[in-house]
Every structure is written in C-alpha cells, then in structure tokens.
Amino acid sequence: MSGQNKSLFIAEKPSVAREFAKALKYNMRNHDGYLESEEAVITWCVGHLVTMSYPDVYKPELKRWSFQTIPFIPEEYKYEVIPSSAKQFQIVSGLLNRADITTIYVCTDSGREGEYIYRLVERQAKVNGKTRKRVWIDSQTEEEILRGIREAKDLSAYDALSDAAYLRAQEDYLMGINFSRVLTLKYGDQVKNYLHADKGVIAVGRVMTCVLGMVTLREREIRAFQKTPYFRVLGSFLVGERAIDGEWKAVTGSKYFESPLLYKENGFKERKDAEALIGECVPDSAHVISVEKKTEKKNAPLLYNLAELQNVCSKIFKISPDETLKIAQELYEKKLTTYPRTDARVLSSAVSKEIGRNIKGLFAYPPCAEAAKEVLAGEAYKTIAKTRYVNDKQITDHYAIIPTGQGFGALNTVSATAAKVYELIVRRFLAIFYPPAVYKKVSMCIGMQGEGEHTENFFANFKLQESEGWMKVSRASFLKDRKDAAQGKDGAQDATGSTESGGKENGGEEEEEKEIACDPAFLEELGKLKKGTQLSYNGAQIKEGETTPPKRYNSGSLILAMENAGQLIEDEEMRAMIKGSGIGTSATRAGILEKLVRNKYLALNKKTQIITPTLLGEMIFDVVRYSIGSMLNPKLTASWETGLAGVADGSISKEEYTQKMNAFVTKHTENVKTLNNTAELRRCFDYASAYYKSGKTK
C-alpha cells in the first residue's frame, strides 16, 4: 500500500468501474473487488449492498403478525448488510475507511436510487473525515466521465436528494409492512378460503396497489360496456379523376335532423333507414357547399425518455418494459446511448451546444450515416437551443435518451432487438434537426338534394403530404412501411396503425382524417373547387359499425399511464405540462409491473403484451377498495411522488414529509382494525369469479 494520499472511485457495478478505469488511464492492478494504481483506487457495489431491517430485528416479538404490534413506525430506522453481498461490502467498507484514502468520488448511477445505494454503504461503513465528491454523468463515454470527475460537486450538494431517497424507501417500507399485515390479518383467511389456497397473504404497496387498481378498473369498464350498433353512410364523389369519400351527417336542413332514427348525428340505428337516405339523394345534384384548404406543419416528436421508449418497444417488438429497460441500460453501458432512467424528453442547453459531436459520430453508423451528414451540412443543429427540443426547466436529473455517436464496435455484441432499439433512438434524435412535414389539409362539405326541399350534407376531411420533412429519416430500416415506422404522431402510435385512445366511448364511430397520395393533377383540381362547384356522384355505401369499449392496457401504455398519473395522454405538449406528477419513477415502473405479474395479481400476455387482472388480483383490489380505498387513487399516489420531488429540491422539509407519511399509515392501519365488511367483500368476490372460466382458482 502506497503512503501517498489517494482518491477512491466507487461505482454501482463492476462494468462501470472498468469504464472509469479506462477513462482515467491509470496503471491499474486487479485486486479482489477493486482496482488500484499509484494515484487511485476504483471499487464497486453490486447494486444494493445494504437494506432496511425487518421489524423482528427491532424486537423479536414483531416477527409474529398481530393487530397489537401495528402500526409499526420506528423512531430510528435500522439497516443491515445483505448477506449475499457481505463480501463486497467488507471490501468497499475497508477501502472507504483506509487511511490513505482522502477523497471519495461517488460514481453510482446519477439519480435518486444511485444516491441511496452509496449513502447506505457510507452509513453502514461509518465513514468519517473524508472529502466526498459526487460525479454526475449522462453517458459513459470517456469525455463525459472525465467531465463528471472534473466538475464533481461536494456530496453535501446532494443531501436533499439523499433525504428523498431515504424517505421513498421508508414510505414503501411502512406502507408495505403495515398495510400488508393489517389487511392479511383482517382478510387473509377470507381470501384463502374463497380460493381454496394454501396462503392468504395480501401484499400491498404504495405504487403497486394503485397500478393494480388502474388495470382492474379498466377491465370492469370493459365488462360494463354496452355495444351499440350503428350504420353510417359514405358518399363517393369525383374530384377530377380521383374519388373522395364524404361522411353523411344529419345537420340543419337534413330530413333527419334530430330524428329519433339516428344514432348520434352520423349514423342510423337501423340499416333500412340508411338505405332510405341513399335512395332519396338525387345523383346529379352533388355540389360543393364549402371547401377549406390550409397548410399544416407537423414537427418531429420529442425525444425518447424511458417511458416513451418502453411504450414504443411494447408495441413494435412486443417486449415488456423491464426488457426494454435492460436493453436501454445495456446500450448505455456500452457507450452507445445516454443515461436511460430519465423522465425528460428534451435536451439541456449545455449539451445542445456540443450536439454536433453526437451527430458527427453517427457518420460511422451505416443505417443513418447519410442522414447524419445531411444534418451536419445544414444549420438547424446550430440553433436547436431555440426550439422546443431544448428546455432546462423540463429536466430534473438527466436529459432525454440520445445516441452518443460512439461505441459502434459494441453493436456487434448486442441482440438483434437491442440493435433495432438503438436505431429507433438514433432516428428519433436525427429527426429533430429536420424541418417539419408539410400537409395540405382539406375540409369539404358536399351537398345533395334529398327528399322534398331537404339538403343532405356529406363531409370529407383529408390531407396530402407536400413535403415529408423529418419523416424522411424516421422510417426504421427493419420496418416494412411508414405506418410501421413508429415515429409518427408521437413516436409509438403508428407502430400498430392506430393511436391508443385510452378508451373513448365512441371509438370507431367517426371517419378519420385520411392521408392520401399527393400528385400535381389532383392538387390542380382541388385548387379549382369553390362554393357551388358541381361534382360527379360516384355512389354510396353503408358502413356498419358498433361502439367500442375502452382498450385494455398493454405493458407500454400502462407505463405511459403511470407516468401521467393514471391518464393515458398521447398529446406530448400536455404530457410535458404535467411531468413530475406520475406514479413511480422511470427507474421503478417496469419493476413494479414485473412484481404484480410475479405475485399473480396481473397476467401479462407475452405475445401481445396485453395486461389483465387475475381473479386473485381483483379480490385484492376489492379488499383495498373497501379498506384503504385512497391507495387506489392515481392522483393521490402521484402526490406522494411529487412530495418526494419537493424534498429533493428543498421545497418540502424532511420532517414535514415524515409527519404526513406517519400520520397516513397510522390512520389507515387503525381504521382497518375496526371494519366489518366481510359480507360486502364476499359479494365482490362472487362478482369477479363469474368472469373466470374455472370460477375459483387455486
């Protein structure tokens, strides 16, 4: 051991530690659990080395679950080394306290969880009298690692983030232990006996239970939905040589205006009435009542954050959010992309000034090399800071996921799916430097003489693409057509050819605005149209349909709904406005979903990624609904996360948050003890079990 003072770098994983060693370029020697040179020592955790102690560590009698020992709220929390990680903890602890180590560089993942991992180790190792610096980086490239070390702040600058991390863990601990115990003691036998199961443990959690509620409520909405059949009339009219469709609506002047024969204004309850309308229209009377033509520009979507990437990958590749996270983490660790556990969909102003390096690096990536060269030859990347794609106010810990422009050798070592995910990230990134797509948007009202003095109106809405703009670069090489390019309205919807409606009651009732091929002859004919222009009638057809129930969540849309506090919001501007009020965090959402599936509360169809509740899950939902119903409220659950963000930014004190948290747990634990609602729950269980083939599952 050298007598000179040394710095210790502590990373979250061995692979990250090796990247730091490469960047520092010291002559490092391998030791058991660490690397060392004359100047420095580099070591690592293996994820969490320390965890919170179970109640029986406080008092042995707390091992037995009973009403008398809850609520259990420690005045001071106890922590212990995870047995499987004991060896590495001893190594790290010894290094942290070594006399020649004077400065500690904390290099765990740059986020709340990474902060917590290190702080627990430092606390358990009883470290004192050292200079501690926090390295905060957005990628694992050599330049970024060296910048992070060079600009490392004193660890105390992150004390508020550390407080939030501790509180998050304590909150999950208190709710998990107290609510799981009180509900199991109160209702566990009832659940167990109903299912003829061996055990009746009821596991609840701050975020987990809320997500279970979202899925169960959606399933019950679908069951309660009453389908309504209807018959729409579509007229076909010639503009030049091209036929366009117009949808009939019963507006003022129609024989059927406010008629009881209608289902809403655009369809009939009976086919015979739709047929009667067609027979009443005079074929040679078609004329333009109004026509509006306007130019519409559509900008490239915002960049990927983790939730958006998980949503896209669920739709295109049919993989779970947890699998997407693993891929994103691998791409990050192989220096291909920036930090994945981010909620931001924009760049920081600082990185926007250096973005040319990322673009130039993509010259070495064949699928997008030409596009990267085109971007760098233009001016847009120089002024990107003035656009909506750069906004420091929308960034908490990290900016959006983008390619680093480095690490291409590692692409040969990743799976085929990971390579495709990387291509999506690159194309989404390059798209922001392209001009908007330009459309000619046309809205027409076409009139025909109906019965007597009545006029029947047909409405045609369509658009023609005049310039593809950013869409030129958005089409992934592995997808068949633009509809599959997954880069359309907001990056995911076109992967399945439709948007996630989040369950609109009138799903499928309206003729959607169509995009049709643009050619000069058709544009010329459109230009001639004006009020009164006669059109050739090309016949009509009846389109039968029925109202559709809300859609089930898939794994990707559920992650988006969690990000948006229970709302599946597709509009990215609106999503940006409510950012920060989600359920869980980008780092935890995939794991929460995995746990619900593992507990058999939710079922995940691996082929389609559709998520449904199980009978057990529905029963747990009802138990919570009739006991601690507020846990099912996404807005309340999101408010806890907002509160933690407030602790992290210093706007809420640790003491204030702790007081509210303890009061919430105490109030609801005590309330459950007094409830007498087993008969109501039995009726709920009977209702749910009727929807499962076996009736009652073991």
Explain this structure to me?
The protein is an alpha+beta fold and 698 residues long. It folds into four domains: 6-151, Rossmann fold; 166-220 and 552-689, Topoisomerase I, domain 2, CATH 1.10.460.10; 229-300 and 438-477 and 506-546, Topoisomerase I, domain 3 (Distorted Sandwich); 315-431, Topoisomerase I, domain 4, CATH 1.10.290. The protein contains 23 helices and 18 strands. The strands form four sheets. The chain has a seven-stranded mixed beta sheet. Strands 10, 11, 12, 13, 14, 15 and 16 form a seven-stranded mixed beta sheet that branches. Strands 5-6 form a two-stranded antiparallel sheet. α3 (86-96) packs across α4, α6 (159-195) runs parallel beside α22 and α9 (306-316) packs antiparallel against α17. The model is unreliable at 482-509 (pLDDT under 50).
What would a concise description of this structure say?
The chain is α+β, with helices and mostly antiparallel strands. The protein has 23 helices and 18 strands. It has 4 domains: 6-151, Rossmann fold (3-Layer(aba) Sandwich); 166-220 and 552-689, Orthogonal Bundle (Topoisomerase I, domain 2); 229-300 and 438-477 and 506-546, Distorted Sandwich (Topoisomerase I, domain 3); 315-431, Topoisomerase I, domain 4 (Orthogonal Bundle), CATH 1.10.290.10.
Quick tags:
698 residues, alpha+beta, Rossmann fold, Topoisomerase I, domain 2, Topoisomerase I, domain 3, 4 domains, seven-stranded mixed sheet, 23 helices, 39% helix
CATH topology of the largest domain: Topoisomerase I, domain 2
Distance between the ends: 61 Å
Which CATH class of the largest domain applies here? Mainly Alpha
Sum up the overall morphology in one term.
flat
- Strand percentage lies at 15-25%
Classify the helix fraction into a percent range: 25-40%
Radius of gyration: 30 Å
Secondary-structure-based class equals: alpha+beta
User: Numbering strands along the chain, what is their spatial order in the largest sheet?
Assistant: 2-3-4-1-7-8-9
> What's the name of the CATH homologous superfamily of the largest domain?
Topoisomerase I, domain 2
Q: What characterizes the major β-sheet?
A: 7 strands, mixed
Count of discrete domains: 4
Examine the secondary-structure arrangement and name the CATH architecture of the largest domain: Orthogonal Bundle
List the total number of helices. 23
* Number of separate strands: 18
Average pLDDT for all residues:
90
